[in-house]
């Protein structure tokens, strides 16, 4: 703003006056005022609404109804659960049991936004005896419909890992841009590459360099280490990075000056036989995608949500939770 005014004054220096400059200054656009995305009571009401409609949708795998309360990676994972369940024999399908989030054991973190910015809020909800288990939730307002929908729900490995979020005098949180190194030491693309590397190499390339040792990182690395040799000499398994379908991230400033970042990633797993004459038999839980036909190779796509604490100065981040679902799979026929 100041640069624009200065340039304008230079180009009209022969005719402008102090009064004209003052008028130009007064005409400058005011700094947009950031306001809370919604009130705490409204946020709790949105979570309660989610629980109610989620139960109704899950009772009969109603994708359209679910789409009114979920979006992004969470919706993709939920409908994948529907598909997988529908692919099982009737006798193997579990009857859905209704549940809801305990609002009395839910901490809300509501940022302020200016006009035009996408609105969202976070929550950490606890359940179990003595609130043993913690889950990070992200709800975002949809631009077109103005509906609030859940886009991420990630269990933490240890509730003690949930960081203390910085709050202003009115109890509201501060949203950060996790894509910028001005806000975080490891921006979104680095975090996404690191969690993907945990699956693709066991963390040997970037995963162990970006993240400290944690239960969540160890589980991702174990998924690689315990899977790549499952066929022995008869086949191979390889994980690969995939273009992320969901690119949004959500970050909050923590009380210690770091950031809590929630994001999504996509990776694939390809199982293949080592030589002709062998075929892979689809597992029961894969049949919704693969049917019952054997194949020399199968490729699975996984959609995941990840939660990490990230320093603002150089240092390692910590992965504190993640969840993944198989969201696609396909095979190759022997004739192809």
UniProtKB/TrEMBL annotation:
Pfam families: DUF8094
Matching InterPro entries: DUF8094 (IPR058407)
Superkingdom of the source species: Bacteria
Region span, Disordered: 1-34
Domain (DUF8094): residue spans on this chain: 34-331
Protein name: DUF8094 domain-containing protein
Organism: Streptomyces graminofaciens
């Amino acid at each position: 703003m100041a640069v624009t005014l200065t340039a304008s004054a230079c180009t009209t220096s022969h005719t402008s006056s102090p009064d004209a400059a003052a008028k130009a200054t007064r005409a400058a656009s005011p700094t947009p005022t950031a306001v809370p995305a919604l009130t705490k009571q409204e946020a709790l009401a949105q979570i309660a609404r989610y629980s109610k409609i989620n139960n109704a949708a899950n009772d009969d795998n109603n994708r359209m109804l679910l789409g009114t309360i979920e979006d992004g990676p969470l919706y993709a994972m939920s409908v994948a659960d529907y598909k997988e369940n529908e692919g099982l024999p009737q006798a193997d399908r579990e009857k859905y049991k209704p549940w809801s989030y305990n609002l009395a054991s839910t901490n809300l973190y509501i940022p302020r936004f200016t006009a035009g910015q996408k609105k969202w809020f976070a929550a950490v909800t606890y359940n179990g005896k003595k609130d043993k288990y913690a889950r990070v939730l992200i709800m975002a307002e949809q631009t077109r419909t103005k509906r609030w929908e859940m886009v991420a729900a990630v269990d933490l490995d240890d509730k003690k890992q949930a960081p203390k979020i910085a709050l202003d005098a009115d109890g509201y949180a501060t949203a950060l841009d996790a894509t910028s190194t001005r806000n975080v030491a490891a921006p979104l693309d680095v975090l996404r590459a690191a969690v993907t590397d945990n699956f693709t190499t066991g963390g040997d390339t970037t995963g162990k360099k970006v993240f400290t040792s944690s239960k969540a990182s160890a589980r991702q690395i174990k998924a690689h280490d315990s899977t790549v040799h499952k066929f022995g000499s008869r086949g191979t398994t390889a994980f690969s990075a995939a273009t992320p379908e969901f690119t949004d991230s959500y970050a909050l400033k923590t009380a210690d000056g770091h950031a809590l970042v929630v994001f999504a990633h996509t990776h694939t797993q390809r199982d293949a036989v080592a030589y002709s004459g062998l075929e892979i038999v689809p597992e029961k839980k894969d049949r919704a995608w693969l049917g019952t036909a054997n194949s020399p190779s199968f490729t699975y796509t996984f959609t995941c949500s990840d939660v990490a604490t990230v320093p603002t100065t150089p240092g390692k981040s910590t992965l504190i939770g993640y969840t993944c679902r198989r969201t696609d799979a396909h095979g190759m026929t022997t004739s192809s």
